[in-house]
């Protein structure tokens, strides 16, 4: 019994030590950004989405975790104005695409992190869009003391967003929308 008690105390001290080394840095949602690009045969559109919240976890000054929530209702088109802008934003928020009335947020949770050197990390995480989670990999680059950047390529069809996809519909011709879309992310914490 005495050995079990001693082992418990040692484990508690070790756990407290390792936990004490981790630092959680909350992102500044007003300074952090997500820029999206969606492409089709005849061109492309771009816009932004805002973070609801998020944080990066550091251990010994290295990225050790992260989780983020995006407010899908803020999805906007930045390359058009007036009626065209409103029409595209409405369509992107509709059931054909992101169903933002039903799925107001999307999330990303880091699952594993591998250092690639030079403040670059290979992140494997679970991305959830429209209630559907899939594993995704991307590089995260820490820039200075309070900034990180990432570029992600996401296959929208894995999240049941099939509108205009040549992978699911024949004879779309020049109305085909590519399955992959890009996200360029800046995190300020």
Give a description of the structure.
This protein is α+β, with helices and mostly antiparallel strands and 189 residues long. The protein has helices spanning 2-21, 82-93, and strands spanning 22-26, 33-40, 43-59, 62-77, 105-117, 120-129, 132-143, 147-155, 177-188. An eight-stranded antiparallel beta barrel has the order 2-3-4-5-6-7-8-9. It is globular and about 55 Å long. The N and C termini lie far apart (47 Å).
**End-to-end CA span:** 47 Å
Per DSSP, what share of the residues sits in E-state strands of 2 or more residues? over 45%
How large is the count of helical segments? Answer: 2
Helices and strands: which structural class? Answer: alpha+beta
- Give the uncertain stretches in residue-range form: 3-19
- Spatial sequence of strands, sheet with the most strands: 2-3-4-5-6-7-8-9
- Report Rg: 20 Å
DSSP helix fraction: 10-25%
* Biggest beta-sheet profile: 8 strands, antiparallel, barrel
Q: Which whole number gives the mean pLDDT?
A: 92
Order of helices and strands: HEEEEHEEEEE
Question: How many β-strand runs?
Answer: 9
Judging from the principal axes of the Cα atoms, what is the shape?
A: globular
Give the SSE map.
Elements: H1 2-21, E1 22-26, E2 33-40, E3 43-59, E4 62-77, H2 82-93, E5 105-117, E6 120-129, E7 132-143, E8 147-155, E9 177-188
Antiparallel strand pairs: 1-3, 2-3, 2-9, 3-4, 4-5, 5-6, 6-7, 7-8, 8-9
């Amino acid at each position: 019994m005495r050995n079990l008690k001693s082992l418990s105390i040692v484990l508690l001290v070790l756990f407290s030590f390792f936990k004490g080394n981790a630092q959680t840095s909350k992102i500044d949602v007003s300074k952090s950004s997500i820029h999206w690009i969606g492409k089709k045969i005849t061109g492309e559109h771009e816009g932004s989405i805002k973070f609801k919240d998020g944080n990066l976890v550091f251990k010994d000054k290295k990225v050790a975790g992260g989780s983020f929530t995006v407010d899908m209702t803020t999805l906007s088109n930045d390359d058009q104005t007036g009626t065209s802008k409103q029409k595209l934003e409405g369509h992107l928020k509709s059931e054909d695409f992101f169903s933002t009335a039903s799925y107001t947020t999307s999330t990303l949770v880091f699952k594993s992190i591998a250092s690639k050197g030079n403040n670059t990390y290979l992140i494997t995480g679970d991305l959830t869009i429209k209630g559907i989670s899939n594993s995704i990999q991307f590089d995260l680059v820490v820039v200075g003391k309070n900034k990180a950047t990432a570029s992600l390529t996401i296959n929208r069809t894995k999240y049941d967003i099939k509108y205009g996809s040549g992978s699911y519909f024949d004879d779309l011709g020049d109305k085909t929308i590519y399955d992959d879309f890009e996200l360029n992310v800046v995190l300020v914490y």
